Amino acid sequence: MFKDDYRSAFSKVTASEDTYRRVMNMSNRNKPRRSGSALRKVLIAAAIISLLVVMVGAAEYAGGWFIRYTAQNKEEPLTDSQIAYVEENVQENIAAPADTAATETEDFRVEVKSALTDGRVAYLTIALTAPEGVKIDYLNSGDEWGCFFFQEALLIPEDTTGLTIAPDGSSPDALCENTPVDDGDGLSNTHDLVFRINPFTEDPDAQPFAQGKRWKLHLKGIELSVWNYSDRSEDSRNTAPESEDILLTEDSWDFDLTFQESDTERVELVSQPIRLPASKWLNDEYVYEVELTSFTLGALSKGIEFAPTDPEVIQELEQAETELGAEVLLDIGDVKIVMKDGREVTLLRVTSYASSFGTPIVLEEVDYVLLADGTKLPMPVS
Fold first, then answer.
1. Do residues 262 and 85 touch, judged by C-beta distance below 8 A?
2. CB atoms within 10 A of CB 168
3. Which residues of 302-316 are buried (b: 16+ CB within 10 A; e: fewer)?
4. Per-residue model confidence (pLDDT) at position 41
5. Cα 44 from Cα 194, distance rounded (Å)
6. Each residue of 260-279: pLDDT tens digit?
């Protein structure tokens, strides 16, 4: 979500103050399958990492930004094995400045800290340091809330196979969310920004971030938007205040990204086609029938393939798309990933697009996937 999305949302929505604060905190988640003994090693490593987290704090280890990201977005606290997954797969030193002189100006410094990916989607954390006295960290500022934005943020893949590509060579739908995250240093002029990267591809199991895949990241201009809640009257407590928008710099930064080895394992849960009810996206009338032919799980994303089989329904949707000039999405309702210990990860209004999770999934701990109509997709026995 970028600048215009924030302004549009805040100008139209009416909700409680807690809701506003939650919105501000949200957006402005092929190694061989591990054996049981391998999982035990992960859990041992998790215990060690948990001890280190207690001793030195989450900010002191490589994946700390992802732990803060999930906590900030109201996800369940990460388990020891999830923390171990993050630490085992976080990728540091993936970025080389395309132009060394452009990565640091006299006033601002931008750094690509690290990434986390399952090959299909990726999370990338960017560290921004502003001049002393320039406040950009507003996550714990009482009645004053703020977010900074890059006016331009483009991701350009070297390998464009299966990806939607704009005339400038970028993947226009790849950078689907950027979330300010506390960097843990207590300074008001430094902050992290987590990019959630989920490029559209017709192949649900594409690996655009597999080992060796190269992307260019272009960032330009930093703008700060600040909302002040302290002056609101009782009558306007449930409406958003006007934002103050400040242009901090028009400088640009360019990086070459090369993704490293990570756990890209995916597990297929559908062995034969399954008939399911579906609706037009965000419509509660489940009047269509679709055939589910694939549902794959990775550590950070799911892939899914389903489509209507009734020729009349197919014709109806094609006609609607022609009239709208856009794709008409179907969804199969909410889907739950249920763990062996009873924990659940809920995916809302699942469409046929691959999507990322807000928390890592340790595949060995998954019991089954529960579809909205009650159908269970058990994990295959290894």
1. no
2. 9
3. bbbbbebeeeebeee
4. 41
5. 28
6. 999 999 999 999 999 999 99
What's the confidence (pLDDT) of residue 331? 92
pLDDT at position 84 over 50: yes
Q: Do residues 260 and 211 touch, judged by C-beta distance below 8 A?
A: yes
Sequence letter at residue 284? D
C-alpha distances in Å from residue 301, one per residue of 105, 296, 319: 36, 9, 31
Phi and psi at 321, nearest 5°, equal: -65, -40
Q: What integer pLDDT is reported at residue 241 of this predicted model?
A: 67
Measuring CA to CA, which residue among 83, 81, 89 is closest to residue 365?
81
User: How much is the mean pLDDT over the chain?
Assistant: 79
Cα dihedral 181, 183, 186, 191, rounded to 10, equals -70
Token couple for 85: 């997954």
* Burial tier of 281 (Cβ tally within 10 Å: 0-12, 13-18, 19+): middle
Q: Would the CA dihedral through 302, 308, 309, 311 be positive or negative?
A: negative
Q: Is 134 helix (H, G, I), strand (E, B) or coil?
A: coil
Contact in structure between 111 and 126 (CB atoms under 8 Å):
yes
Q: Which residues pair with 275 in a beta bridge?
A: 291
Contact 284, 312 (CB under 8 A): no
What does the block give as tokens for 77? 């606290």
> Mapping DSSP to helix (H, G, I), strand (E, B) and coil, where does residue 309 land?
coil
The residues that bridge with 114 in the sheet, in sequence order, are 92, 125
| Cβ-based neighbours of 12, under 8 Å, separated by 6 or more | none
Model pTM score: 0.78
Given a cut of 70, whether residue 38 has pLDDT beyond it is: no
Residue 364 CA to residue 311 CA, distance in Å, equals 40
CA dist., res. 78 & res. 189, Å (int): 28
The dihedral built from the CA positions of residue 354, 356, 362 and 366, taken in this order, carries a sign that is negative
Q: What is the pLDDT of residue 240?
A: 61
Q: Where in the chain is the domain with CATH 2.60.40.1630?
A: 3-30+90-258
Provide the CATH number for the domain formed by 3-30+90-258 in this structure: 2.60.40.1630
Tell me how far apart the alpha carbons of residues 223 and 207 are, in angstroms, rounded to a whole number: 33
Q: Which residue has the tokens 């409406």?
A: 239
pLDDT interval class at 21 (50, 70, 90): very low
Predicted confidence at residue 157, as pLDDT, reads 94
The confidence score (pLDDT) of residue 103 equals 53
